[in-house]
Amino acid sequence: MRPTDNTVALTAARPRRGGGLRRGGARAGLLFVAPAVLLTVVFLVLPIALALWVSLSDWNGFQSPLNPRVNFVGLENYAAVTTDDGLAQQNFGTAVRNNLYYVLFVVPLQTIIALLLAVQVNRAMLRGRGFFRTAFYFPSVTSTVAIVIVFQFLFTASGAINAVIGFFGGEGPNWLNDSTGIIHGLLSTVGVTGPAGVLAADGPLGITWWQWLAGPSVAMSSLIMLSIFTTSGTFMLLFLAGLQSIGAEIDEATRMDGAGPIRKFFSVTLPMLRPTLFTVLTLGLIGSWQVFDQIYVLGGGTAGGTINTPAFLSYRTSFVDLAWGQGAAIAFILFVFIILLTLLQRWILREREPRKRGAFQKALKGGVR
Hints:
CATH architecture of the domain at 79-181 and 216-348: Orthogonal Bundle
Strand content: under 5%
CATH class of the domain at 79-181 and 216-348: Mainly Alpha
Largest sheet: none
CATH topology of the domain at 79-181 and 216-348: MetI-like fold
Number of strands: 0
Number of helices: 17
Helix content: 55-70%
Shape: globular
Radius of gyration: 29 Å
CATH superfamily of the domain at 79-181 and 216-348: MetI-like
Structural class: mainly alpha
């Protein structure tokens, strides 16, 4: 029997069951997330907005940044550390150079070491796997300040490292106070001790190309070793989780195909670890550009400023030099720089579709058949 028009109208007008429950669930959900949203706004969004205002103003650090006597200066603080010739620009350029070499050495080395450690402790035939996992991860949970103090004793002029070097007849440097760039040191062995030609000209951010090509200083090299020592264990756990997510049937299939350990690692294991690799590289990149506590414990001004970083420079400019606007501007420049590098890294590591065969290749393949 076909329904009449009145029946259809009544059915359409009848409210759906469960609509009130859905509305009630939405209200309950908003109620539950309200505290988290409120805390995020109060302790994250508002401080960031206030710091952005400080970077655009001439606030002197006294009273409130929102009082009427604080003036809007636009991008003057940003220009002071990026384009205006002066000590602020040179200090920022030196800090960026130092941190750039820190990233170039720390991120690849800690990623490779973490991956190798994860592969080793994931082997079924390894005895005492739990002990080795704990031992490799232990430096990551140890206080950074404590590790830096231990490294200070190891790398002083009369420390254990130089004692070992002296045992073999060598003479170690004053590690944490030596401002000599590694590349400059290598060039000096072949008689190149100063800039010539283009290298003597001014480069970006107020420092010469010769200074840009100095390489990490001996003091920064010590911090690079310290960072790799303390962070490789954390990333080892991430790689270990990724390795354990690869099913046993994949290993069995690779063995049946006759793939050796090296071929299996580069052709099967490493491609399947792409998401984990992206996470490790992203976290390593962000952490390397935010390095602060090690520099703070060592004083920051040692080794001729060659261990200074933008994060520490932002702190020192604000709280020591009382140039709050410039300090906030450095922090936001660093924030934008990290975002751009992360996006670039994501683009490089993105999944790429295989290229389609061209008409010539298809015809050639058909002819071969």
